[in-house]
Each structure stands twice: as C-alpha cells, then as structure tokens.
Amino acid sequence: MLTSEQLIATLTTNFSSALIAQSDFRNELTCIIKKEFLLPVCTFLRDDAELQFDSLRDITAVDYLGFEETSGASYNHDTNIPHRSSYEYDERFQIVYNLYSFKNNFRLRLKILLNDGEHVLTVSTVWQAANWYERETYDMFGIQFDEHPDLRRMYLPEEFEYHPLRKEFPLMGIPGSLPLPRH
Amino acid sequence: MGLEIGKESFFTTTMDAMLQWSRKNSLWPMPMGISCCAIEMMALAGPRYDISRFGSEVFRFSPRQSDLMIVAGTVTYKMAHVVRKIYDQMPEPKWVIAMGACSSSGGMYRSYSVVQGIDQFIPVDVFVAGCPPRPDNVLNALIYIQERVQRGIASGDREKIYITE
Predict the structure, then answer these.
(1) Is the peptide bond before A149 cis (omega within 30 degrees of 0)?
(2) Quick check: A180 and B122 CB within 8 A?
(3) What pTM was estimated for this model as a whole?
(4) Which helix (H) or strand (E) holds B82?
C-alpha cells in the first residue's frame, strides 16, 4: 500500500525543488507545488508504475481575497477557539487538483498558487477529464488555462462579463448583466 | 351559464359560454418541470390527487398543444429565455401557474443566477406558495384559473391570485 510518506519521498527525489508545502490531515494528503512544475509532476504522477494516478477527479479554485481580515479578527464563541491561522501565501488564488490512483486506492490533493491575472498551463494534455473542469474554473474564477483546446464558459451565458465566484463579485450580481427576455 | 331547458330536452346558451365551459374543463397543461416541484406535479397527475377530475390530465410535452403552463422549479436567467420561448410557442388563449417558492419569488435562491420571480418576464395568473406546494394547492390554482376561463378573462390583464398554505 502506498503511504503519504512514500509519496512525498518519491516526489522530493524526482522534483527536489517543486514542493512548497505538504500536509497530511486525517489521511488526506495535500501538496502545494510550484506552478512551473505542474505539468512534469502531473505527467510523472500519472505515468509512474508505482503511483499510477490515472484518474483526475476534479479541478477547482479557491479565492483567498480578504481571507486574512475576516479570519484573523473573528472568534468562535461556541468552542472558545480562535479561527485558524491566517492565510500564509501572497498569491490570491489556489488551483486544486484532486487525483485518484486506482492501483493504490489513494487520493492526492495537488495545489498550485496563482496571482490575479497569472495564467496556468492546461493539464488536459495529461488527463482528458481536465477539459471541462478547467472550463468550469475559468467560468467561475476567470483563470486562464493556456493551451486549453476550448476555453469557453461552462454555465453562464457567453456574453456575461464577470466571474461569480471571485470574492469581489456581489452575491446578487450586477444589475442588467444577465438580460431577461422582453416581457 | 344561463341555461334554458326547453320542453323537448334542449337548451339554449351563447356560443361564448359553451366554448368557455368546454375550454375550462379541458385545460391541457404544459409541464415546465425544471426542478423538484416537478415531482409534486407528477403526483398531481397520479391517482391520489388525480388532476383528471378537472379535465387536465393530458400533460402535453409540446407547447403547441397546451394552454396552461405550470412553471414548476427554479428559473435561472439562462433558463428564462427557454421558458419565454416555450410560452411564446403556446397558442392563445393561455394561462400560467407559478408553482412553488422558486418560480414565484426565487425562493431560497437569493443569488445572482436565479430570477427572483418569473413574473419579470412572463404574465403569471396564479402564484402557489410552498416548497414544494402540496398538490391540493396546485389543484386550487387550477380551479381559480377555471373560474377565470369561464368568466372569459384573458391572461395577463388582471389582478394576480396568490395561494398561500
């Protein structure tokens, strides 16, 4: 059986400078890697005979805009525990790749850090499944995936100008941005 | 209807009254089942609530054969164009029931993507509260519409009816 320690060891021997951070919480391994190494690491994880992460389960993003102000000041009065430590990275976005290895029955959460306006390479060349996941992430967060075969919106109308899951987007939307049929 | 029964077992009435009487007892619904309210709409057609008691059991999946649209579910801005197009394809005269909280007011989806009430883009005759509404309440809405059909009131030019639980 593959363990988190083995996987971290394999990654560090093959990509010594790629790993930024890792955490193993309740048997869920999360690795943050440098975005330049995304494609080599993904290809390695898929093709390595021992690992065989041949299934990409999801791609999404997290917007940490304003995270520090809200989480640093608030306090949970039910448990008397202050909220978790503030966000330690400068980059605004995290892109999350959920991988699964059938061979080892093992899940890996791969993350990269991204500033607003920065692009990232598509992994649809590694896993075909990434195509629609990346379209979805582009639709909701406006993150550009370079060399994507068909980076169109997934849910919202083509002519919509905003990306609703960005923190600066108001909950009730921008009036008039989504037209209704004429009465 | 103002019937006059004659000695020879015939009656006289106006053409309009006859037409409206037959129309109100054969309102054919267009099931616009967009989300979970559609399950309750199916119960409406089943034997327990039995919408056929009111002549409306013929759910037509073609708008061209329907004259009552039951909008049962959450209407997003993207879906609104579809709903409007199907409404436009229905022949006159036609009526609309907004079934449930979502289609009446957006319901619990107070969000950028959901239309906060379908009366913003189609004329609604009856709003039915509930999440989902009980089938009895939708039958009640149908009966209200039947009354209006009998009185010859066209859709979209009168006070709305609100059915609360």
Answers:
(1) no
(2) no
(3) 0.81
(4) helix B77-89
